[in-house]
Design goal:
294 residues; mainly alpha; 15 helices; 77% helix; globular; EamA_dom; membrane
Length: 294
């Protein structure tokens, strides 16, 4: 039940992201999200005893790259539900980067899973190209790749309290994201949007609070708790249910109607990601603890 609750929190988070992006520029919103979390972390949470370079890689990949690309894609018209699904590309990307950079061995099943996931992404890309622009899909794939690099940073930061590592990761993104916002969106774009939101954009602040408190602190905290108490192979498969919640919530609240090809491609991506990361749904063999932590 706790795992399903986390899936619900993370899936609904894409609605919060959409609400925030309706009021704030993408880079500024991403910077604001991490800044709100970073300030209390710096004051109250002791820094974990992990190498700084890997913590920085974790923050740049997971925080800066992922959300800069993801938020820009959503701002350019990437459907909310489809964004939650394409972001699952981070799983096969992580496996590939682990094999290339960390010399982790790939099994035959993982290689098949990677091929299947790529095929699913190709179906989604072809469908988007036929009905709209392909750029948002490519940006979402770049977000998944950035998340994968962040996973490698997390993989190299063994700690007794993974939640503290996750929280301290949030200290890295604000300054680079604020700098990107000033360079790309303009030095006053974020400030002007913030000022407007204080008058007529209260939904944006509710979305920001949900993203920080519900999705990050509660969701990540419960996930860390579950991973520390139960076998990885029992917990890890639940993360693949997040796009289902994302799709359903976007359909019910935002009235997004995904095409048949997007749904088929999405199902293929989830199956491929499950195979590539060594997960079977339900009750299959366990993933390795290293991949589970990623």
């Amino acid at each position: 039940m706790l795992a399903l609750f986390v899936v619900l929190l993370w899936g609904l988070n894409f609605l919060a992201l959409r609400a925030g992006l309706d009021h704030f520029p993408p880079m500024f919103f991403a910077a604001l999200r991490f800044a709100v979390l970073a300030i209390p972390v710096l004051i109250f949470i002791p820094r974990p005893d992990v190498p700084v370079r890997w913590l920085v890689l974790y923050g740049l990949g997971f925080g800066v790259g992922q959300f800069a690309f993801l938020f820009t894609a959503m701002r350019l018209g990437m459907p909310t539900g489809l964004a939650s699904l394409v972001l699952q590309s981070s799983a096969p990307f992580t496996v590939v980067l682990g094999a290339i950079l960390l010399r982790e061995k790939l099994t035959r099943v993982q290689m098949i899973g990677l091929a299947v996931a790529v095929g699913g992404m190709a179906i989604i890309g072809a469908d988007r190209l036929a009905n709209a622009t392909l750029v948002p899909v490519l940006l979402c794939l770049a977000a998944g790749l950035s998340w994968a690099f962040g996973n490698l940073g997390a993989r190299k930061t063994p700690a007794t309290n993974p939640l503290h590592v996750t929280l301290w990761m949030s200290v890295v993104p604000p300054l680079p994201l604020f700098a990107l916002s000033m360079a790309i969106e303009g030095p006053t774009a974020g400030i002007n949007a913030f000022a407007r939101a204080t008058h007529d954009g209260h939904a944006a602040f509710v979305a920001l609070a949900y993203t920080v408190i519900a999705a990050t602190i509660c969701g990540s905290g419960l996930w860390t708790y579950l991973m520390s108490r139960y076998p990885a192979g029992v917990v890890a498969p639940f993360s693949l249910l997040v796009p289902i919640v994302g799709f359903t919530a976007a359909w019910l609240v935002l009235h997004e109607e995904p095409s048949v090809f997007s749904l088929v491609g999405g199902a293929i991506v989830i199956l491929g990601a499950a195979a590539a990361t060594g997960v079977r749904i339900p009750g299959g063999r366990q993933v390795s603890p290293e991949l589970a932590r990623i």
